[in-house]
Amino acid sequence: MVASCTIPAFRAALVALCSAVVSCALTSCASSRVADLSPLDPGQKGVAIRCGKILTVDDDDRVIERGLILVREGRIAYVGSDRAIPAGYPVADYPDAWAAPGLVELHSHIHGGDINDMVLPVNADLRASSALVPANPSIRRACAGGVTTLFGIPGSGTSMGGFGVIYKAKTHGTYESIVVRNPGGLKVAQSYNPERRAGDLGATRAGLSWIMEQYNEDARAANREGTSTLALENLQKVHSRELPVLIHSAGSDGYPAAARMWQVDNKTRAVLSHGCFDAHLTAPWLVATGASLNVGPREIDFTTTRDGRITGTAAKYLAAGAKDLSLNTDSPVVPQEELFLQGAVAARYGADAYTMLRAVTIAPARVFGLDDRVGSLEVGKDADVVLRSGDPLDPRSRVECVYIDGQVEYDRRQSGQWF
Amino acid sequence: MLRPQASILAASLLIAGPAAANGPFVIKVGRAETVTKGVIEHAVILVEDGKIVMIGEDLPIERGLPVIDRPEWTVVPGLVSAYTRIGQDSEGGDDMSPDVRAKDELWPKSPDMRKVVEYGVTTLGIYPAGNGIPGLGVAIRPLGETVDELVLKDPTYLKIVMRADSASKKRIKDGFKKADEHAEKVKKAKEKWEKDQDKKAPKKEEPKKEEDKKDAEKKDAEKKMAQGEEPEAAQEPKPDAKTDKDKKPEFVPPAPDAKSRSFVELREKKLRALVSVSSGAEFLHWIDALGKESILFDVRIPLNQDSDVFYVFDKKTYDLDVDGIGDRKCFAVVEPMLTFTPNTRRVRNLPLELSRAGARPCFTPRVDELASYKAWLGHVGELVGAGLGHDTALRALTIDPAELLGVADRVGSIEKGKDANFVFLDGDPFQPATRIQAVMLDGKFVHGEVDQ
Amino acid sequence: MIRLESMRRVAIGLALCAVAMPAWSQDPPAPAEEGKEGKEGDAKKDEKDDEPERWFAIVSGDVHTGTGEVLRGATLLSRNGKIHSIGYDLYIPPDTKTLDAKGFRVYPGLVAISSQGLLGNATSDFDDTMDPFNYRMILGLATGITTTGAGTGAVKLKRFAVGGAVLNQKIFATFSWSNSNPRGKGELREKMKAATAYLRDYREWQRKVKEEKELPEPSKRGVDNSVLAVLQGEQTAKFVANDRDELLGIARLAQEYNFRPVIEGCMEGWTVADELGRAGARAIITARARRAKDERQVMAGGASIENAALLHKAGVPVAIKPANEGIDLSGLVGRDIMHLPLEVGFAIRGELPDKAALESITIVPARILGVSNRVGSLEVGKDCDAIVTDGDVLHYKTFVQWTVVDGKVVYDKEKELYFAHIRPRPEGPAPKKVDAGETLPKDEPAAEEKPADEKKPADEKKPADEKKDQ
């Protein structure tokens, strides 16, 4: 009797233990990494940043007054309250500054020229990385605005524009020194833009969706058969969920259609980008699909919702329960350096301000699988630290200094105030 | 039961004799919506010589009188459209022509104008075409052989189009300036006349006085000739002169010339203005243009989907500096349509809001065309469905436009003494299934049942 | 010389500096343009004295007067639309309409140096063409703007009424000083020369004609009237210029011919700030203007986020305008007139001091438009144009709760649909829940037509030591 009672209990305990292990493995390992307070070796690069306040934007939303960040070999070795600094660390003192993670942008076109190749309606085999110009003037200015990680993507001229590249906004450096992941993810455009431009079949949404589905079917078939071709290999990774897909779509017609196609039917890691006009009216359904929402650059709607209200769309999605909502600039539509302002505007129009800080840091990192490296100030992550004179979302706060991978990429005192 | 009216009926029977074209006859219907005296069930209406002689509930009728017995019908007064140009050519008055009369362009044979009777319309208020201050309106019946047979009242109102621009304000100022000039003229003439009166005191001066009088009248006559009016017979003063010695002489002010008459009469409150304003701003600019002038006016509000005139319906709601349209109890000529609060899809019923604010809506058809006249009752019915009171809606088609036109003594309700203009329907006028069965104008069927 | 006299005036004015003094005594050397308008304003005030008195008070708010003073928990009292007193323990007459601003801040109504569409489609003759009900005016008032430059004039956002909204007209004479039109520069110089010569001859003549009555007046031929108006202080010279050497040229012209230019754009002004300051220039800038430095130049150039701060430091009064002067509801947020305070935030980013930042959208544009005797700060005698906000007006989350123009509440955030749903005011009536397409119920007036009950002056708000005899 006793034995039979304990077996289900034991099984339950085992299940609990396993899920704990699994969830521990799935969550950012950084949070369980241990701080390293050993002295800095002479051959190693590092810095001790002392500042007035640290917004870690970690899962506990820790805010540290009078904090210290130890950077070692491009990674964060310690983030916490000020303390005795281990030997060997040069010290950077910012007694009045607030430290926050470098901002993460998922929808950007400032990586170089050539953002659309519009001969064929589908270009799943192209890569934006070919056009990447490291440290170009727009990227440098973005850095001065506190943006440190970007997903540079093709435009919306065709339904599948190609694969974008994830890179760091260093103000000097080579391709190799800035690329984080290439291909970073697929860029799809599914409302308003491609319909105008496709040449042959594909002048309508029905046509474009049909063409894309054919490609998707081929990729899934290749995955099943275990084959791979140059043309399809990246699309196959989207369907095996190794890479995410960012879909430009909007309106109460286009946004749910994109969710249906990519999240529900194709079961990919879908990040629905824009979601403007009256798409927010479908927010509850969208949130229920589990798709990630990436809002911007338009953040209010008045003319299509037509209820006399100026509706903040981010607030609407949050109210419907959206998790890991992220914001974008679609730069250069909104200048890249103003990604923080997208957060401020979303907060103005009804969203919680701190959630909007997360929406430009950890949330985009998480939905794109970058949160092992960027998005928050935690031990083990890249030392992408932005020091500002105040609230990161407030336009009045000036950026004092930007570290990317532990190196100073922008220092207001040295190079003057770029932004 | 014998009632006082019954004896009158008997009396009229004796007088009338056999049924004749203008002879008396009786209409019996299930329901009469009189508009001014409530609803009468089992109504009995006695008509003679084109007028309503009597109306009452279940009045006994003497045998011999022709009777139109339709217990399934409802009767309402003939509809009045106070602001229309149906059947008229689109000749415009120019920007400043307060003397132009719509009467002068009437064409009795106009087919569209004549056809409106089929849709129950028995009185029309024709306005002069054009922008600015195009001129004076006229009230007519739609059928007649000559212009005189058509005209019920001339003029009805002075049409003024108000837009938010300096030109509109200038026109109004110019109009009152002309009235000022006339007032100056009158003042000078009066001064002159008074001076002449002073010189009259001694008898010796009489012949001189008579000559002066003759001169003054000659001048008047000349002036009147210039305006195209008949001068009074020059001989008249002479015989009167003897009696005038005893009678205190009265000053006859010179009549205003064509260009200033309308504004003079506005000031004297002998003429009303109908001002077209399409937005709240235009109404305020109108009041601003009026300044210290106090005139009688009503408004014509051409409605569009996003009309914001509701801002000026009353003073209190938006704390205006001036009285609103409702506070002034204006007649407001509007189309029967629902609108939106600007920039939204929230529906508004502006005719209802107008009537709540104290104004008196008068309907025009949605578009000034026969097709809209045909659908007129249906369109008004939509507004009733959206909350407008049945009585307010019916008034806005009958007695209120009649009052606006100044012909409410003759038309607009089913009352003793008024013209026998009726619309016979097979039900509630504002129900979508109801159809017009017959229309009577001045006691004669002009649509529907012909044999009396 | 005009300049010396006015400098002396400034010195005296500064010496007499007191809280409640009208703004124009604190002005830097300026021609008589503002004083002129002030006299007209006073005349209008006298006309209104036979009106019944209309009292209005904003009570218990933190009053930021716009002159640098902050009075916490103070009362602002207005009579017939003009500010009567600001302070504590004020006597509030009976029948005063009050607005309870406890927990809120009170600022001067903002002044947009220029805007588009706030007055409806009107572009001129505003007293005859203004649309005081148009939704863009409501949004302007919701932003806190109560006065705007319009055309060459300045107009108040007077809602619900027409007439009396135009505060000033024909303020500017616009000139061109551009590298792409070198001949134009020469021509302007010539005109200035001719006008100066005429003025000199005219003064001579005025002196001599007292003796020699027959002396003919000097000829005005060849004298440009706009230039003359500028030199006589009747109009303000306005330039649109961004390049460093264009700005230098304007500064030098201004110093030579003795006028204070207003320069719109002024992107590279920070590189020649000192020169502009000496010339008495005023700048209208957009903080986020972007322009790369001309790489052929060795000197500093291009746009800078620090433009406003550096100009201000050099004594150039700075007025701020957004990139888009109209209202943009297409979805992209932050660059239009509805977000004017955000633009100022970027100037603060560039280290413009907080006081100058508030002034850049209040008293500085008011002075440039020649209406600073009436608007631009909360001071006794000025128009009661104020905004009540739920926080620092320059913070990105702050909304205007009420806007007051001429001592009358003309905008209430809770009563308009636009923003009432965003962080609704706690004590106010709950915003009416309305779905798109809702029809009015039968025989029931729509809630938005009914005004919320007027804030009745609560007896407990009256000062305890009220000396009124009843």
Order of helices and strands of chain A: HEEEEEHEEHEHHHEHEHEEEHEHHHEEEH
Q: What's the CATH class of the largest domain in chain A, please? A: Alpha Beta
Indicate the CATH topology of the domain at 172-368 in chain C. TIM Barrel
Got a strand count of chain C?
17
Q: Describe the sheet with the most strands of chain A.
A: 8 strands, mixed
Tally of separate helices of chain C: 12
- Main beta sheet strand tally, sense and closure of chain C: 8 strands, mixed
Explain how this protein is built.
The complex is a heterotrimer of chains A (419), B (452) and C (470). By secondary structure, chain A is α/β, with parallel strands linked by helices. Chain A has two domains: 30-101 and 381-415, Urease, subunit C, domain 1; 103-367, TIM Barrel, CATH 3.20.20.140. Helix content of chain A is 30%, strand content 25%. Chain A contains 13 helices and 17 strands. Chain A has helices at 2-26, 137-144, 175-178, 194-197, 205-225, 233-239, 251-265, 283-289, 313-319, 339-348, 353-358, 362-367, 412-415; strands spanning 46-55, 63-72, 75-81, 91-101, 103-108, 147-152, 160-168, 179-189, 245-249, 270-274, 292-295, 300-301, 311-312, 326-327, 385-388, 399-404, 407-411. In chain A, the strands form three sheets. Chain A has an eight-stranded mixed beta sheet with strand order 5-6-7-8-9-10-11-14. A seven-stranded mixed beta sheet of chain A has the order 3-2-1-4-15-16-17. In chain A, helix 2 (137-144) links the parallel strand 5 and strand 6. In chain A, helix 5 packs across helix 6 (233-239). The radius of gyration of chain A is 22 Å and the shape is globular. In chain B, helix 4 runs antiparallel to helix 5, helix 4 packs across helix 7 (258-267) and helix 4 (166-199) packs parallel to helix 8. Chain B contains 13 helices and 19 strands. The longest helix of chain B is centred in the middle third of the chain and has 34 residues, at 166-199. Chain B has two domains: 1-78 and 413-452, Urease, subunit C, domain 1 (Roll); 79-174 and 260-411, Alpha-Beta Barrel (TIM Barrel). The relative contact order of chain B is 0.15. The model of chain B is unreliable at 1-20 and 229-244 (pLDDT under 50). Chain B has a seven-stranded mixed beta sheet with strand order 3-2-1-4-17-18-19, with no helix packed on it. With 452 residues, chain B is an alpha/beta fold. Chain C is α/β, with parallel strands linked by helices. Among the domains of chain C are: 1-30, no CATH class; 172-368, Metal-dependent hydrolases (TIM Barrel). In chain C, the strands form three sheets. In chain C, strands 1, 2, 3, 4, 5, 15, 16 and 17 form an eight-stranded mixed beta sheet that branches. A five-stranded parallel beta sheet of chain C has the order 10-11-12-13-14. Chain C has a four-stranded mixed beta sheet with strand order 6-7-8-9. In chain C, helix 5 (182-208) crosses helix 6. The radius of gyration of chain C is 24 Å and the shape is globular. Residues 17-47 and 428-470 of chain C have low confidence and may be disordered. The A-C interface holds A 137, 276-277, 297-303, 305-312, 315, 333-335, 338, 341, 344-345, 347-350, 353, 393-398, 417-419 and C 290, 292, 304-306, 329-334, 342, 345-346, 348-351, 394-397, 399, 417-423, 434-436.
